[in-house]
Amino acid sequence: MSANRGAKIILHSLERSRSQRILWLLEELRLAYDIQPYKRDATQRAPASLKHLHPLGKAPVLSIAPPPASAHHHHHHHQQQQPPSLILAESAAIIEYLVDHFLHPPATGAEHPPTKLTLPPRWTAGRENQPGGETAAWLRYRYLMHYAEGSLMPLVVMRILMDVVKTAPAPFFVKPVLGIVPGIVNKEYTRPNLETHFGFLEAQLERIAGEGAAAGGGGGGGAAAAAAAAAAPAPAYLAGTQFTPADILMSYPLVIAEEIKAIDPDRFPRLRGYVKGLRGMEGYRRAVQVLEEVEGQEYRPF
Q: Which of 19, 60, 119, 184 is most buried, with most CB under 10 Å away?
């Protein structure tokens, strides 16, 4: 059975938007999909045609046509009924839907390579379905799936908007005023808040790297394995030592922050290394390549 399990998937993708993450996930899940690109209009907004798909007119939007359902009327007559397509919006909701249907947990005892997309196990052994029985990695994962768009992204957007206002052409007598306002907003609000967030993520990566090292050192793989573990520290992702869909969701605000040089390399070296690592991943690069082919222009996140 193919990865799609009979579903036909179309990604409605807007240039310079959050669509690249969904594309990355589709690539990681080895799903077959079509891509419908949209250009921004003269005012840099999404075109009206996206509103026909979803009332908010934002991208990404994913449409999934389920496989035809076989309806059995009597025993000799059977016909195919096509259920209506699902229209999914909101990046985190799209990611969760795709993960629910197409990301299969690794077989028990199977060696899963660290770069392989996976979900953290939900329960600590012996504490299944109890409040507080969840693993730390699962709790971080669930948190990040809300945090990326709920807490981090609005700050990044505010920072970009202020940069736009600062550099926008304006009549000279208004310009000084417009220049002062973004400067104040960045200094008093955006920068300190972003730095608080980056400090939080930096500490999280440091803690996870520590957990990975501790786990790696405890394996019974003999001296050679221990030496290899020491030479190559376990990769740290944001939910744990495994690459999860939350990393894909978090990539967009962090890549933008890195592009506008908002992540101080001296204060947040792990976070910068993490973002660089994500951008170097095969699935990330493949998604960028697909977008560039489809749009006929160089990929820019915003």
A: 19
pTM of the model: 0.88
- Residue that has been written with the tokens 């990404």 in this structure: 60
pLDDT over 80 at 194, yes or no? yes
- Of the chain, the end-to-end C-alpha distance in Å amounts to 38
**pLDDT given for residue 61 in this prediction:** 98
Judgement on whether residues 146 and 260 belong to the same structural domain of the protein:
yes
Same domain, 242 and 175: yes
Tokens of 218: 């405890």
Cis ω on the peptide bond leading into residue 60 (within 30° of 0)? yes
Number of domains in the chain: 2
Beta bridge partners of 77: 73
Q: Where in the sequence is the domain holding 50, given as residue range(s)? A: 1-66+84-115
pLDDT value, residue 75: 57
DSSP string, the chain: --TTTT-EEEEEEETTSTHHHHHHHHHHTT---EEEEE---TTSPPPGGGGGTSTT--S-EEEEEPPPEEEEETTTEEEEE-PPPEEEESHHHHHHHHHHHH-PPPPTT----TTS--PPP-B-TT-TTSTT-B-HHHHHHHHHHHHIIIIIHHHHHHHHHHHHHHHS---TTTHHHHHHHHHHHIIIIIHHHHHHHHHHHHHHHHHHHHHHHHHHHT--SHHHHHHHHHHSPPP--SSSSS--HHHHHHHHHHHHHHHTT-S-TTT-HHHHHHHHHHHHSHHHHHHHHHHHHHHTS-----
Least reliable range by pLDDT among 12-26, 153-167, 174-188, 249-263: 174-188
